[in-house]
Amino acid sequence: MGGRKRHLVVDCLGLALAVAVTAASVQDRDAAMPLLERLRTMYFSIRLVWADGGYAGRLVDWAAEKCRLTLEIVKRTDDTTGFVVLPRRWVVERRAD
């Protein structure tokens, strides 16, 4: 049985700006493209987006070229063990469903 993923773009207060729901089989980077395009259309003044490590790779260059967004990836360091609060990551994770 398939699952689903939620992809959220929130502001600094954790308020939702754009949302996409995809099948669990869809790669995060692939789901982010239309989401970032929608974000750019709705909120033209946004220039910087912090994202989870699952969105790293070619999406960073694509966002810069196509959407004129700086996509900064926030990820754990390789030597980190256990639970660690990552900078900026807590904003979306504290969002109540």
From TrEMBL:
Q: Which UniProt keywords apply?
A: Signal
Please tell me whether the keyword Signal is annotated for this protein.
Answer: yes
Q: Give the source's domain of life in one word.
A: Bacteria
Q: Which residues form the Transposase IS4-like domain?
A: 3-94
Instruction: Give the signal peptide range.
Output: 1-23
- Note whether tRNA processing occurs among the keywords: no
Checking InterPro entries in the record gives:
Transposase_11
Protein name per the record: Transposase
Q: What is the lineage of its organism?
A: Bacteria, Bacillati, Actinomycetota, Actinomycetes, Kitasatosporales
